[in-house]
Amino acid sequence: MRYNAAKPITDSAGQNILQMYESVPDSERGNFSEHHHTEIELCYVLSGKGKFKVREKYYDILPGAVFLFPSNEVHWIESIESGDRLCFLDLKFEPRLIWSPQLNLFDDNCLRGLFGSDCTNYISPDMPISAVIGEIMKEMHNECLGEEKGSEIMVKSDLYRLLVLLLRNENSHGYEASVGNIENLKNIEKAIQYINSNLSKKFTLEELADISCFSRTYFSALFKSLNGVSPWEYINIKRIEKAKMMLSETNDTILYIANECGFGNLSNFNRIFRKITGKKPSDYRK
User: Which residues does 99 contact at the CB level (< 8 Å), separation at least 6?
Assistant: First the structure.
């Protein structure tokens, strides 16, 4: 369950690019599904204990611990200890908030590769940096909740402060990302905006590459280097996010939702939904 969810920060097209909230998993549920998403996720444990599983590794959930999940990183809660209420402060943001010329505050290539597949997923609560990260995230959350004048700039500034701290952390594996010139970044963002605004549409790689003025091969490679997922992975995840919203907020049939989210048939929709969320659409609706 989500509590104290702040109003998301959006781009010029109204798409969410950053959101913060407190997450309280239901300890009575017993089992939790593996899942992944396009956003980079940073979790700070406010209270409670348990186990997180990331790929094949297990990590202790302890108050003050920090978890980092890059785009498309499969992760889930393995267990929750009885007694204390488990609560995370959750920050999710799209990778393009770092690299987009339209969205970011600074042109710093070293941040673009910070959350690669080899990044450190866990910072233990006994490391000094974990307390600093927790305080910055709390400040960001309060700014998001307050919605005062200039709060978006404050939140973005705090985000970059967080990223630099993580980059300096000796256990982080940042690298210089070679992504080309500003025009290339703008063209990739143009394709992302097109995808986000047309999720019910059938896409072709040629069409998306043409929008970006690239060859198919270069478009696919650059897209993945910037976002951590391939174009097709990005499209499927965004479609499933839309489907989850429709399953939660409407009484539309699952077939109708599948069509509205761009899936050609129900079996394909069920397969991809389960791959991304760990559940069938009907179970998610329950």
Answer: 112, 177, 179, 185, 226
